[in-house]
Amino acid sequence: MQAPFLFFLRTPVGDVLASFAKDQSTLDETLPDTLHMTGIYLIVMITALIIVIVSIHYYAAVAVGLAVAFFTMLVRIMCT
To answer: Which of 18, 31, 69, 80 is most exposed by smallest CB count within 10 Å?
Structure first.
């Protein structure tokens, strides 16, 4: 946290604590639900991918190529 010292002199302690308490409450309430739904969607996506690969064998080569292209672009974008 990088705030000027003057901020803490002018802002009452209760306001600062209330802000942190609200942020903590938001994390406590929404983070577990978000992680749960992310896990469910990830499992559904992997299952669908496996079903398609078993049904259409050529899709496996296309999926690997797309994954390599995606991660190559991701690394290039993240480095800039």
So the answer is: 80
* Euclidean distance between CA atoms 43 and 47, whole angstroms: 6
Per domain, the residue ranges of the chain are 56-80
On whether the CB atoms of residues 76 and 68 are closer than 8 A, the answer is no
Confidence of residue 17 (pLDDT cuts 50, 70, 90): confident
Six-digit token string for 44: 């559904």
Contacts of 16 (CB under 8 A, 6+ apart): 8
Contact 3, 15 (CB under 8 A): no
For the cut 60, the answer to whether the pLDDT of residue 1 exceeds it is no
CB contact at 8 A, 50 and 44: no
Confidence of residue 3 (pLDDT cuts 50, 70, 90): low
pTM score, two decimals? 0.56
